[in-house]
């Protein structure tokens, strides 16, 4: 009985829980190609003199079409700066971004940007908020109504078309923001901590909804989060950044089976193992004493607690 249980819980020998990539490997080819990005801000110090604040340094990454990539890192490491550059809202000091071979020079409708603050227009109903991008694209009114209804239904807001943002919960507002971004059919979705402002139960529901929507639409998604569990649950790859200046420390290809749900992943030994590996990278492998945790040569703490090791 015990042997059968252990065999069921242990990861299959032919399927590693993750694959680690170098920054160089992660930067080759793809739908989105970020090449040697560097971003600097100038701030006044105590002596009222300008000094450099380097937010990003030598950041290169390739993202495939239809791929879901999560980005995690310490506060202030440049995650949101990176999304601003991808959205075309900021220009890097050096380096380039290409989407489908075209250089990104500013905002465009090939990218949708979903932020944690919803950014809904309070004087517009749910339907009219969702329609906003279609109006900008000059889509005919009848066609707009059809598209809006499709995406309102997709995010589970059928029956709320005529409600205003102040009549909705935080989770419902975020669904409207997702529907609005999907409705005008962007090539890429950029998501900056979109579920940070909602309670834990709503967050889990929205994570499952996002996974379901992604399975249907296969949009290319770049998702910034502070939550390790969220990053691993959602992504095909997790990009772990260093503290400022933000660089790529490691890229982990997540080999957990899909479709996934938050509840299903909670009972997965592989999922817990990967979460610890990401945590370990963010902690720079330091233990409570500030020294590296002891482990046999060539093995990390995550290796030591792997299900295949423990069971």
Describe the structure.
- It is a single chain.
- By secondary structure, this protein is an alpha/beta fold.
- 36% of the residues lie in helices and 23% in strands.
- It has 12 helices and 11 strands.
- Helix 4 (126-136) packs across helix 5 (141-154).
Strand arrangement in the largest pleated sheet: 1-11-10-4-9-8-7
* Percent range of helical residues: 25-40%
Terminal Cα separation, in Å?
13 Å
Order of SSEs: HEHEEEHEEEHHHEHEHEEHHHH
Number of helices: 12
Overall shape: it is globular
Main sheet record: 7 strands, mixed
Low-confidence stretches: 1-15, 285-302, 304-311
Our Rg estimate from Cα atoms comes to 21 Å
Write down how many β-strands occur, each being a DSSP E stretch of 2 or more residues.
Answer: 11
Strand percentage lies at: 15-25%
Strand-pairing-aware structural class: alpha/beta
Average residue pLDDT: 83
What are the SSEs and their pairings?
Elements: H1 2-9, E1 18-21, H2 23-26, E2 32-44, E3 50-63, E4 68-72, H3 79-87, E5 94-99, E6 102-103, E7 111-115, H4 126-136, H5 141-154, H6 170-183, E8 188-192, H7 200-217, E9 220-224, H8 228-234, E10 237-241, E11 248-254, H9 262-266, H10 269-282, H11 301-304, H12 307-310
Parallel strand pairs: 4-9, 4-10, 7-8, 8-9
Antiparallel strand pairs: 1-11, 2-3, 2-5, 5-6, 10-11
């Amino acid at each position: 009985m015990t042997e059968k249980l252990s065999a069921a819980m242990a990861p299959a020998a032919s399927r590693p829980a993750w694959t680690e990539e170098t920054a160089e490997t992660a930067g080759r080819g793809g739908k989105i190609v970020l090449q040697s990005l560097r971003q600097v801000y100038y701030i006044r110090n105590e002596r009222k003199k300008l000094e450099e604040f380097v937010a990003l340094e030598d950041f290169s990454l390739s993202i495939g079409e239809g791929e879901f990539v999560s980005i995690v890192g310490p506060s202030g490491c440049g995650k949101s700066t990176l999304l601003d550059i991808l959205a075309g809202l900021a220009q890097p000091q050096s380096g380039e971004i290409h989407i489908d071979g075209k250089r990104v020079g500013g905002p465009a409708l090939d990218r949708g940007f979903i932020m944690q603050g919803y950014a809904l227009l309070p004087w517009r109903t749910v339907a009219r908020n969702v329609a906003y991008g279609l109006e900008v694209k000059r889509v005919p009114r009848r066609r707009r109504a059809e598209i809006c209804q499709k995406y309102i239904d997709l995010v589970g807001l059928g029956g709320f078309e005529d409600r205003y943002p102040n009549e909705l919960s935080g989770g419902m507002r975020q669904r409207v923001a997702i529907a609005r971004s999907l409705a005008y059919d962007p090539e890429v979705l950029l998501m900056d901590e979109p579920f940070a402002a909602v309670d834990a139960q709503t967050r889990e529901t929205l994570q499952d909804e996002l996974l379901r929507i992604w399975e249907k639409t296969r949009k290319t998604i770049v998702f910034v989060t502070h939550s390790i569990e969220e990053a691993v649950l959602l992504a095909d790859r997790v990009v772990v950044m260093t503290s400022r200046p933000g660089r790529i420390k490691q890229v982990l290809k997540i080999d957990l089976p899909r479709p996934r749900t938050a509840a299903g992943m909670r009972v997965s030994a592989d999922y817990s193992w990967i979460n610890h590996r990401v945590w370990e990278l963010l902690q720079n492998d330091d233990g409570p004493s500030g020294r590296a945790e002891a482990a046999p040569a060539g093995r990390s703490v995550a290796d030591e607690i792997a299900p295949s090791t423990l069971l």
